[in-house]
Amino acid sequence: STDHIQVEGSSSLWRADCRAKGGSPGFRVAILGAAGGIGQPLSMLMKMNPFVSVLHLYDVVNAHGVTADISHMDTGAVVRGFLGQSQLEDALTGMDLVIIPAGVPRKPGMTRDDLFNINAGIVKTLCEGIAKCCPKAIVNVISNPVNSTVPIAAEVFKKAGIYDPKRLLGVTMLDVVRANTFVAEVLGLDPREVIVPVVGGHAGVTILPLLSQVKPPCSFTQEETEYLTSRIQNGGTEVVEAKAGAGSATLSMAYAAVKFADACLRGLRGDAGVVECAFVSSQALGLLSSQVTELPFFASRVRLGRNGVEEIYPLGPLNEYERVGLEKAKKELGGSIEKGVSFVRK
Ligand code: NAD
Ligand code: LMR
């Protein structure tokens, strides 16, 4: 029986509900696509996050199996499973943060844009549910192609009249995680000491690491710059090829998603100085943020706070190599954004 993980009809759950409602501090988080390659380790890691009091795991397959498994972990969050479209609204009601890793992954030879036809519709449907049931939630979009699925989410929210650009964030954290790792390797440092801003978007040349702004300050030869830029831009493909048809990055992605979700939750609870890279609307802060680029969406360093994106930082001084990269990135990004927008408007 799956009674013990259903929302209703279980005394053990009723007590858990009391605990969740009874002033237990923490946030209510839903993961959509929780039974997938990313979804499972992401659900496990969010169950370990001390800021989370309620964790809703939604998928169209195996949601109850994953929920039963994770619910046995002796950490604070109360876990509930939701299976299939008919339970989407229950999964979303009351959520503070919704993380979306639902959708198909790449196989060797595919681009992220090749996933558009399937994933666009999945993200659209899930965002319609969010608009209806938790319009104030912060939304973290992982499903590819991120450069198009974030604009899709924005259009769905606009249609529903609830769009708040500060609350919608495309997750590009894996690019930063990879950049920190690869740069640390070249410099012979511990990756935890390295911070690399990665801006633009989340596909091929739209992934633009700003190696001139690495912390701690350092310099690279032209050869190192080209090697690092290419490795960071092709990190996803490196994993897709190594998995040889069995999917794309899941474990490093779950790690990156939790690092990013944790930053969003720290922002929500009012911590100062929470800054991460994310793919956000250039209108998130009105005219101020449109100074980053002329594109309607762009990944850059943002400060996270009680309302989501509180500040978007300018790109800062770029060297010639980065300026050329930025022009290439903007060209491709513009088309991907437009594709997402017209998918919903058509
Ligand atoms: P997966 O196939 O292992 O898992 C996807 C899950 O989504 C499955 O459990 C599936 O049942 C579920 N799903 C499908 N349709 C759904 C719907 N309508 N509602 C709810 N759930 C649904 O794939 P994965 O490896 O976990 O990757 C998921 C997505 O994340 C892919 O699009 C992939 O390209 C993307 N991704 C993004 C990044 C990033 O950096 N943003 C990194 C890695 C992967
Ligand atoms: C990644 O960067 O690993 C993801 O976007 C998955 C992919 O298709 O490469």
Automatic annotation (TrEMBL):
Annotated CDD domains: MDH_glyoxysomal_mitochondrial
GO biological process: glyoxylate cycle; malate metabolic process; tricarboxylic acid cycle
Matches recorded under Gene3D superfamilies: Lactate dehydrogenase/glycoside hydrolase, family 4, C-terminal, NAD(P)-binding Rossmann-like Domain
Parts forming coiled coils: none
Catalytic activity: (S)-malate + NAD(+) = oxaloacetate + NADH + H(+)
Major subcellular location class: other
InterPro entries: L-lactate/malate_DH (IPR001557), Lactate/malate_DH_C (IPR022383), Lactate/malate_DH_N (IPR001236), Lactate_DH/Glyco_Ohase_4_C (IPR015955), Malate_DH_AS (IPR001252), Malate_DH_type1 (IPR010097), NAD(P)-bd_dom_sf (IPR036291)
Chain ranges of the Lactate/malate dehydrogenase C-terminal domain: 172-343
GO molecular function: L-malate dehydrogenase (NAD+) activity
Alphabetically ordered keywords of this record: Glyoxylate bypass, NAD, Oxidoreductase, Peroxisome, Tricarboxylic acid cycle
Subcellular location: Peroxisome
EC number: 1.1.1.37
Binding-site positions, substrate: 106, 112, 144, 178
Protein name: Malate dehydrogenase
Organism, as annotated: Buddleja alternifolia
